[in-house]
Amino acid sequence: xxxxxxxxxxxxxxxxxxxxxxxxxxxxxxxxxxxxxxxxxxxxxxxxxxxxxxxxxxxxxxxxxxxxxxxxxxxxxxxxxxxxxxxxxxxxxxxxxxxxxxxxxxxxxxxxxxxxxxxxxxxxxxxxxxxxxxxxxxxxxxxxxxxxxxxxxxxxxxxxxxxxxxxxxxxxxxxxxxxxxxxxxxxxxxxxxxxxxxxxxxxxxxxxxxxxxxxxxxxxxxxxxxxxxxxxxxxxxxxxxxxxxxxxxxxxxxxxxxxxxxxxxxxxxxxxxxxxxxxxxxxxxxxxxxxxxxxxxxxxxxxxxxxxxxxxxxxxxxxxxxxxxxxxxxxxxxxxxxxxxxxxxxxxxxxxxxxxxxxxxxxxxxxxxxxxxxxxxxxxxxxxxxxxxxxxxxxxxxxxxxxxxxxxxxxxxxxxxxxxxxxxxxxxxxxxxxxxxxxxxxxxxxxxxxxxxxxxxxxxxxxxxxxxxxxxxxxxxxxxxxxxxxxxxxxxxxxxxxxxxxxxxxxxxxxxxxxxxxxxxxxxxxxxxxxxxxxxxxxxxxxxxxxxxxxxxxxxxxxxxxxxxxxx
Length: 568
What we know:
Elements: E1 3-5, H1 8-16, E2 47-50, H2 98-103, H3 105-110, E3 115-118, E4 122-123, E5 156-160, H4 171-180, E6 184-189, E7 193-196, E8 209-211, E9 217-220, E10 249-251, H5 257-272, E11 277-280, H6 288-301, E12 306-309, H7 316-319, E13 331-332, H8 335-345, H9 353-359, E14 373-374, H10 388-398, E15 404-408, H11 421-425, H12 430-437, H13 441-455, H14 457-461, E16 463-470, E17 473-482, E18 485-494, E19 500-504, E20 511-515, E21 521-524, E22 530-534, E23 538-544, H15 551-563
Parallel strand pairs: 1-19, 2-3, 2-15, 3-6, 6-11, 11-12, 12-13, 14-15
Antiparallel strand pairs: 4-5, 7-10, 8-9, 16-17, 17-18, 18-23, 19-22, 20-21, 20-23
GO molecular function: metal ion binding; transferase activity
Signal peptide: 1-21
Keywords: Metal-binding, Signal, Transferase
């Protein structure tokens, strides 16, 4: 077994033939410095993301199995994807609903999650789309024969889609029930598009339409191509741009004050019914002034309301402006880090050094990198291709490193790993798999590390100070000294196939450290070091519940604190 020495100071001492000298301490009489990555309350949560129709069918009575009528081209329930029979992909509704989600709230909370992100809940068309291009197993933005099972084809943004509620369980009931399990409801919202709106052989009901709270038709594409619309002359076209954006979806006019007012009213209604945060779909398809006005109005009613957006772009410089206060101050899903995570924990098996550049811990473009939503895959891309150990390693990183972790439903068992959107990525999970997941090796380790994060403020909000990101080993500190909290966590990660011995001295503060995962205490003297063996594909977290006293650690944290946020 090879011992990895992480201390530059120790190497220097050995080279000079000198004994190690204890690092000076911070003046105990000086005011305590503040060390914190984020003060955002939502950062306490890790997020479990469900595509609601695909999670669990708790109430077959709301399946709407006859919806769309006898025409097989228009029926909405159970439509296997042509060419994807082996993968089980389906472009129809499969029955997942609020009851199935609430029935399994304990399953989610037990894993250590504090929030559930669910796909849009608003009313979608009642037929399959007959326009567009034929869908296939390798299709992207090909929607013929597809239904609104995913929720992103909104028609009335004030009305629940009929596939989701049950008798006695509306959205307010769902959010209240989730709260009883300690879960915040994150609602997926859309403001750049409605339903597919043109290329239908014959105009279909609801497609291309938008209705107000009282059911009034306020916009209708009328099955016209964007260039054929007359926004200035036809009141029903005024909600739309007259140029296309995504596939055949309506392209809503963000410059129209009525559009902004519509969405503020609609989404405020769902906050009033218990939505605790928003995930904003396709945020980059709407200019910043809209989001600035939207967020200002939402937060005027609900101060500090947390939102994060989806900008499918792997360049930090392109997605970071969404986080800036002048553009609305909305966090984002961390796509640049996602790309690196797939390299490190997927089949490429890249080293931990691959992650370093995407962290932007100092002098980065984001308002605050500690508030980014970190993830390795979702419903719009292939699931991560990794073995069980790869998923375990990925979770050990996500739940200890900077950011707010997001896990896509099923990843706790490696469900449909490596598959794309129409090859199994959105397959139905179901109660049988949920029940069988308890005890799965990926889930067992996820429960362990996620519950540790939930119980450890430094892992939620502390500054990150890297000691080593190299090959199969990573070592870093998370330090929180703010608002009465004083906690230092040392994280050691090993994604190798053999145990790894760590010897950590750099930035190490003397004291009685507790082994947060495995129990016990480790006494660290002034001269250090801390030695530990991390199992194959394992993690060790040592926690010191004390203020920062080590001068070397304080100096490094001062630099990290000064450069952590844009404008610092």
